[in-house]
Amino acid sequence: MEITARLMAVASFVREGAYLCDVGTDHAYLPIYLAENGRIRACLASDIHEGPCESARAHIAANGFADIIKVKRADGLSGFTPCGKTDIVIAGMGGALICEILEKAEGIKTGDVRLILQPMRNVPDLRAYLYENGFDITGEKLAREEERIYEIICAEYSGEKRTASKLSLLLGEKNIENKAQDKALFYAFCEKQAAALEKKIAGMRTGGADTGAEEELLRECRMQSAECRVLNEK
C-alpha cells in the first residue's frame, strides 16, 4: 500500500515489533502499510464514528490483515490499555483535541509507550502540554504535501517536567537541531510561521496591543530562515 508523505513521516517513528494503537484511523492506511512491511506485531485501529470503522474493516480484510489489525469504535484512548512496547499514533486532529485525548488516557505515562502525534493546528500548545506533563520530545519531522507542511512529533514519558522557549514551541527543538537534513523544507516552514506571525502582529497593532514578545519571536524565526538560506547556498 502506498501512503502519503505525511503518513510516511508518521510511520518512520513506529518501532519495530511495537503494538500499535492508531487513534482516528479513518481508512486504516497506516496500520495496513506497517503490517505489510512487518513493522508491527499487532494493532488496534479506532475511530469515534462507525463509518470510518466500517471502512477500516473493509480495507483491512481486503489486504489480508484482519488477524493482526483489530478495529474498535472508541472516543480517543477510552478503554485502551498499552500492551508492552506500545506506539500510539494520533494524527490529523487539532492540537487541543490531542491534548484532551492524552489528558483522559490511562497507562501512557510509562517508558514502554511512545506517542507519535501529527496535529493540524495549535502545535505550540501541544508541545507545551507534553513538556509540562513530563514527556520528552525525542524526535520531530516535517512533511510536505502540495502547499501544506505537516509537523510530526514523537514523545516518550520521562517524568521530568520542563518549559521551553517560545521559538522551540513554535518551530520544534528537534526540527531546529536537524534543519540541515532538509534545509529547503525547514526554510519554507520558517517562512510560513514568520508570515503567520506578521499577520498576527498587524492585527495586534490595529487593536493597540503590545507586540514586543511577538516581534522578538518573529526576529528569532527570521534568523532561523536566514541560517537555512546560507545552508542552501553551500
Tell me about this structure.
The protein is an alpha/beta fold. The chain has 2 domains: 5-163, Rossmann fold (3-Layer(aba) Sandwich); 181-233. 45% of the residues lie in helices and 24% in strands. It has a 7-stranded mixed beta sheet with strand order 3-2-1-4-5-7-6, sandwiched between helices. It starts with a helix and ends with a helix. The mean pLDDT is 95.
Quick summary:
This protein has 234 residues and is α/β, with parallel strands linked by helices. It folds into two domains: 5-163, 3-Layer(aba) Sandwich (Rossmann fold), CATH 3.40.50; 181-233. The chain is built from nine helices and seven strands.
Instruction: Report the structural category.
Output: alpha/beta
The major pleated sheet works out as: 7 strands, mixed
Low-confidence stretches: none
Domain module count: 2
Strand residues, percent: 15-25%
Sheet with the most strands: spatial strand order: 3-2-1-4-5-7-6
Overall, the morphology is globular
Indicate the mean pLDDT: 95
Helicity range of the residues? Answer: 40-55%
| SSE series | HEHEHEEHEHEEHHHH
Give the second-level CATH assignment, the architecture of the largest domain: 3-Layer(aba) Sandwich
Jot down its keywords.
234 residues, alpha/beta, Rossmann fold, 2 domains, seven-stranded mixed β-sheet, 9 helices, globular
Write the layout of secondary structure elements.
Blueprint: H1 5-11, E1 18-23, H2 29-36, E2 40-47, H3 50-62, E3 69-73, E4 86-93, H4 95-104, E5 113-119, H5 123-132, E6 135-145, E7 148-157, H6 166-171, H7 173-177, H8 183-206, H9 212-233
Parallel strand pairs: 1-2, 1-4, 2-3, 4-5
Antiparallel strand pairs: 5-7, 6-7
